[in-house]
Amino acid sequence: MFQGLRTVVYPAGDLAEATAWYSRVLEQGPYFNEPFYVGFNVGGYELGLVPDGTPDGPVGATTYWGVPDAAAAHTRLLALGAQPHEAVHDVGSGILVGTVLDPFGNLLGVIQNPHFALPA
């Protein structure tokens, strides 16, 4: 039985560089940092990095990380070295999404959803 999203894992050709970049993006260091895996706790969910090279390009599902201001988060990611992929836009009912490519070729999404609240 599914219990909910736990972890998204991004490959990185240079694990140390990816760890440093995501530490700046998340404004925190990883809670787990080993040569085979780096894990960050992001609001009770996990962003993981593995040293398995780089992706062939953004394919498959997109993981969106919740943010209070999608436009500001998207702009900040670009300022930190991400490349534009999809500008922030309203997908309906005030839900704003946008995506960037991190410096390692992974698709990184942000979502501002006024209808979603974490369970208490």
From TrEMBL:
Cited Pfam families: Glyoxalase
Descriptive protein name: VOC family protein
Domain spans labelled VOC: 4-113
Stored InterPro entries: Glyas_Bleomycin-R_OHBP_Dase, Glyas_Fos-R_dOase_dom, VOC_core
Organism: Hymenobacter ruricola
Tree of life domain: Bacteria
